[in-house]
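Re-run with default settings, no changes from the original entry. Doing this only to confirm the output is reproducible before filing.
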Amino acid sequence: MRPVGLALIALAALIPLFWFAPLAASRDPVALFSQYLGTAALIVMGINQFLATRVPGLELVFGPLDRIYVLHKWLGIIAMVGLGLHDIIDADMDGLRGGPLADAAEDIGEVSLYGLLILVLASVITFIPYHLWKWSHRLIGVFFFMGAFHYFFIEKPFANADPLGLYVSAFCILGLVSYVWMSVLRPLAPRGHAYKVASVRHINGLTEVLLEPRGRGLKHVAGQFAFLSVMGGGLTEEHPFTLSAAPRDDRSLRFTIKDLGDYTSRLYRELKVGMEATVSGPYGNFSMPSGRDPQVWIAAGVGITPFLAFAQTLKHRESGPIKLYYCVRERGDIPYVADLQHLAEETGKLELMIVNSLEGVRLTPERIVEDLKGDLRNAHVFFCGPAPLRKTLKNSLVLKGLRASRFHFEEFQMRTGIGLGRLAVWLWDRGIYAIEKRRAEKTQPAE
């Protein structure tokens, strides 16, 4: 996430204090603070709806789209905290007159709060199936509309036509327009680039798809991802996948997709040559740097896809020595090993190392440092794989001298939780510990 984007969001939420502060002299400050929390939450939700549109330019301000998805999640949580406090802290003020819709706005605000709370919780509880989550997620705009209705017609110490009222209304309108665009207009509008499925290949649980453009095609750089939608077979829903081949002159594209869920399972079974497809993008900023500094590429499982594209560009670009650690749990054929070995021999810049956990081999920070002969300070490390492994390696390598800014990664999952699973395990462990401690105390002989 880019600091400038975070600063703009924080500033947008804090600006209403400029108008709220003078009101504190004549109004209940506690109730006024509650009303500020409600307006700030609406502002954040309006921005969050806008972030979901994927309009051009968002990545320049807020960072790569994978980071925007993480920001989107946390802004939703922050907004819900603000709305929850607004509901708990009494916002009623003496001497205010509401319009004819004030009572209805109060009730609708309650419905909006609890509806949004349920949907935000559904977003961070990751064991809920993706298709159910995505369907329910569309209702957030409906509850946001109800929250905006509550704001427009509820009793408050300023008018909708005042500068403060106009300011907050602008973010409500931004959120509502964004929702209408995403849920109604965008599905009807032409989008993306038209492609045809040229070939389909199944490789050890992976589906490799080669697409040929039906028009000018999509222009991308190695390491980026795009949204794929296939016409037919129940595959029209857009899903993001990394492009697993370097850019080609004819702008054909290759995706390599692992069978991990309902959609990817259907893709594995139903995708056929000749099907029409739409590709939207590209997105992401996971790209190789220029220069001759040493590089370390770490791929786990299907995380090899961006590095396949990276490796194909080595024939045409300058780079320093590159060590690719391909972490797998395979006994038979390992996808794309032959291709990578050929590229390594052809370019002379790439050293491929298979890290097979079934053979008792583990990738450790110490091994990386040893293989680099201690030159960690000047290295770039690229990682694509599970978050726990990423965090372990990054923390250890930074402690050993790697500059944190040179550890590059992309969020492997667009939908992530907030640690509820870890919290549940911790609470369970604490509960078991307390029970065992009480039992031990009861069984101790009296002195």
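The chain is about 50% helix and 15% strand. Residues 295-409 form a domain with the Rossmann fold fold (CATH 3.40.50.80).
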